């Protein structure tokens, strides 16, 4: 009977675990929807901002702006956007592998998220700064990050600044990505970025249409560019944080669903094992009674 008690305890424990993972799955699904809605809300703004930049770069000397200046040599600074919590599958592990393979060996790091901050610190990575961003992510909390990256680049401390984040493709597919943030590539400014496409289809920016529009820049194209490029960087950082959050909640939802399904499967197996053991115990008792009755005859 002790064996039956142990099985009952295991069944109860697995059922309790399934209830917890099911609740976490529902919470992650709700948070994922909010993060996805945030990304969708910024699409039109991103599209118009890119079109203005397309027109601007045709009216100014690209090499004259510091944020467009390509540099030879210099260290690489990487903004790594990971998660604060675990239970989201291999999301952070895959991102760390991407960082190791696509960034320079002597790169320094600015981190958002506790998980990879700890991993990078343990492996001897040089951490320049660490930021905490609320969930859902407000734009105002992304601004200090972009401001710091821009400041460090303009001071000449780094020749290249990249961002490592997880791109939300679908609920079942999150892609670790490393992109160059600074210097801004004048040849790709205005092009549709993959990480701006969340959920529904996003039409690509029509460069011909953008160049065909008759913009009037005041006080001058150069002054507008000075104001617009920092705003562009702020928005890029914000969009990447949102993508990472949508990926995090999606991965956690999938992981918790798998855990819930496995718990249900284990419960069925333990219940079958319990029934077999109980039946065996009943059969043994009946045999003992029958044997005792025959011994008394």
From TrEMBL:
GO terms for molecular function: ATP binding; proton-transporting ATP synthase activity, rotational mechanism. Transmembrane segments: none annotated. Its main location: membrane. InterPro entries: ATP_synth_F1_ATPase_gsu, ATP_synth_F1_gsu. CDD domains: F1-ATPase_gamma (cd12151). Pfam families: ATP-synt. It comes from the Bacteria. Keywords: ATP synthesis, Cell membrane, CF(1), Hydrogen ion transport, Ion transport, Membrane, Transport. It is found in: Cell membrane; Membrane; Thylakoid. SUPFAM superfamilies: ATP synthase (F1-ATPase), gamma subunit (SSF52943). GO terms for cellular component: plasma membrane; proton-transporting ATP synthase complex; thylakoid. One of its GO terms (biological process) is proton motive force-driven plasma membrane ATP synthesis. It is a peripheral membrane protein. Belongs to the ATPase gamma chain family. PANTHER family: ATP SYNTHASE GAMMA CHAIN, ATP SYNTHASE SUBUNIT GAMMA, MITOCHONDRIAL. F-type ATPases have 2 components, CF(1) - the catalytic core - and CF(0) - the membrane proton channel. CF(1) has five subunits: alpha(3), beta(3), gamma(1), delta(1), epsilon(1). CF(0) has three main subunits: a, b and c. Produces ATP from ADP in the presence of a proton gradient across the membrane. The gamma chain is believed to be important in regulating ATPase activity and the flow of protons through the CF(0) complex. This is ATP synthase gamma chain. It comes from Roseibacillus persicicus. The lineage of its organism: Bacteria, Pseudomonadati, Verrucomicrobiota, Verrucomicrobiia, Verrucomicrobiales.
């Amino acid at each position: 009977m002790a064996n039956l008690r142990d099985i009952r305890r295991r069944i109860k424990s697995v059922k309790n675990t399934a209830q917890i993972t099911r609740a976490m799955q529902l919470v992650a699904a709700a948070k994922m929807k909010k993060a996805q809605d945030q990304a969708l809300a910024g699409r039109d703004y991103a599209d118009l901002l890119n079109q203005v930049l397309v027109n601007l770069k045709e009216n100014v000397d690209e090499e004259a702006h510091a944020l467009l200046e390509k540099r030879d040599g210099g260290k690489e600074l990487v903004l790594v956007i990971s998660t604060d919590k675990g239970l989201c599958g291999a999301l952070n592990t895959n991102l760390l592998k991407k960082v190791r393979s696509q960034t320079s060996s002597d790169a320094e790091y600015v981190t958002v998220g506790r998980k990879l901050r700890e991993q990078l610190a343990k492996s001897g990575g040089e951490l320049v700064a660490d930021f905490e961003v609320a969930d859902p992510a407000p734009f105002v909390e992304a601004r200090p990050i972009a401001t710091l990256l821009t400041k460090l680049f303009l001071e000449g401390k780094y020749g290249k600044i990249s961002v490592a984040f997880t791109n939300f493709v679908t609920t079942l597919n999150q892609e670790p990505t490393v992109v160059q943030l600074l210097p801004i590539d004048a040849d790709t400014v205005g092009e549709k970025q993959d990480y701006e496409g969340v959920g529904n289809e996003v039409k690509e920016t029509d460069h011909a249409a953008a160049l065909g529009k008759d913009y009037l820049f005041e006080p001058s194209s150069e002054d507008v560019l000075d104001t617009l490029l920092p705003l562009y960087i702020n928005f890029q950082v914000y969009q990447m944080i949102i993508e990472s959050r949508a990926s995090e909640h999606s991965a956690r939802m999938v992981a918790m669903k798998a855990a819930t399904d496995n718990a249900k499967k284990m419960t069925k197996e333990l219940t079958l094992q319990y029934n077999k053991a109980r039946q065996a115990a009943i059969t043994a008792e009946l045999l003992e009674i029958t044997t005792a009755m025959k011994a008394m005859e």
